[in-house]
Amino acid sequence: MKNFVLTAAFAVLAAPVLADAHLSKGTITKIDRQWNKLTIDHGPLANLDMPAMKMVFQVADAALLADLQEGDEIEFAADRVDGKLTVVEIDK
Asked: pLDDT tens digits, residue range 48-58?
């Protein structure tokens, strides 16, 4: 019982840290609102097994571009969607 309580307490305390583990850091270098694309100079993308680099991504939802400007430092999640590297989440 003691181990269960400790494990449950750790899970509750660690949840906010683990929730952001899928996000990578990057800097927006270009925004193409016409084609819903972002060029991001980013750190490693662990879920895609990619090293740090500068590249162009599709954006899953044009609404994600609304408040962004070139030069913004962001945290983002990218995944393969229909075979294309796509930004699916952005936090400023």
From this structure: 999 999 999 99
Instruction: Supply angle C-alpha 13, 18, 24, rounded to 5.
Output: 145
Start-to-end CA span in the chain (Å): 41
For β-strands 84-91 and 37-42, DSSP reports them as unpaired
What structural domains and CATH numbers belong to the chain? 23-91 (2.40.50.320)
How far lies 59's CA from each of 8, 28, 39, 71, in Å? Answer: 36, 13, 10, 17
pLDDT at position 22:
85
Tokens 């680099």 belong to residue: 53
Q: For residue 48, give both structure tokens.
A: 């895609």
Provide the 3-class DSSP secondary structure of residue 9: helix
